[in-house]
Amino acid sequence: MSLSIIFMGTPAFSVPTLRTLVEAGHRIVAVYTQPPRAGGRRGLELQKSPVHQAAELLGLPVYTPVNFKDPEERQRFIDLKADVAVVVAYGLLLPQAILDGTALGCYNGHASLLPRWRGAAPIQRAIMAGDTRSGMIVMKMDKGLDTGPVALTREVEISKTMTAGELHDRLSEVGARAIGEAMVRLEMDDLPLTPQPADGAVYAAKIDKAETRIDFDKPAADVHNHIRGLSPAPGAWFEAEISGKPERIKVLMSELAEGEGVAGTVISDDLTIACRTGAIRLTKLQKAGGKPLSAVDFLRGTPIPDGTRLA
Hints:
Elements: E1 4-9, H1 15-23, E2 27-32, E3 37-39, E4 45-47, H2 50-57, E5 62-63, H3 71-79, E6 84-88, H4 96-99, E7 106-110, E8 118-119, H5 122-128, E9 133-140, E10 150-157, H6 164-187, E11 203-204, H7 220-229, E12 236-242, E13 245-257, E14 272-274, E15 279-287, E16 293-294, H8 295-301
Parallel strand pairs: 1-2, 1-6, 2-5, 6-7, 8-11
Antiparallel strand pairs: 3-4, 7-9, 9-10, 12-13, 13-15, 14-15, 15-16
Helix pairs in contact: 1-6, 5-7
């Protein structure tokens, strides 16, 4: 037995779930993803989303509507007569006509322990806030933003050094398995739904460029969480004077360190930086247009001596 499924997703995060559903023998009647966007080195080439590329390799039909305001787009979705829609990081709000457009509804794989971190950036926000656990939730979608009843929960520990990139990859695989299990149970009519708690809702706002700059005038633990929560993209950064001119430097990894001093000042030759309280050691950095380097390799080509004040 198998389900007829409409899959809706866009980034690389969603691809393992699509592959899991195909490997499980479900019939993917259509894949919906964001339209190709300008990209490439010059930003002039239209690039298909990772889900779009994966779907084509799997021989699946792909649709890329800008939205579902057009009645014809909504009707095309309904006419697919799918059993269920599976949504993982699609990137479009679904109107009620789409939520009701399959026999069994729309099920979403969301990368947080709802109701904490509803919204666009749950992985980054969880690490930036210093959370010690995250997870994947499979929920049945309703008209609210990540407010639907929960079908399955799979927790993942967040270590003190884990970056957003590492948590992203872990949750992508955990989520694929959770969706696969949920679809088996849905097909067997054995997928209970539990309303989300009324308390504890937190919104995970999209990361704004203005908040990516490192503020060393904060406790060291907060600075460390900020760095790892934005690594590898968009990346936390600071400015330092290199060869007589200010240069932006991205920090990809850090660790808590001993020491104290004026916030933002280099206090040792291994790139230990004083914070408001405590200190942090920068361990992996990247100059604009350059490759990510360990602190040791970075300092060979770009000395930042003890006593330097980082902007």
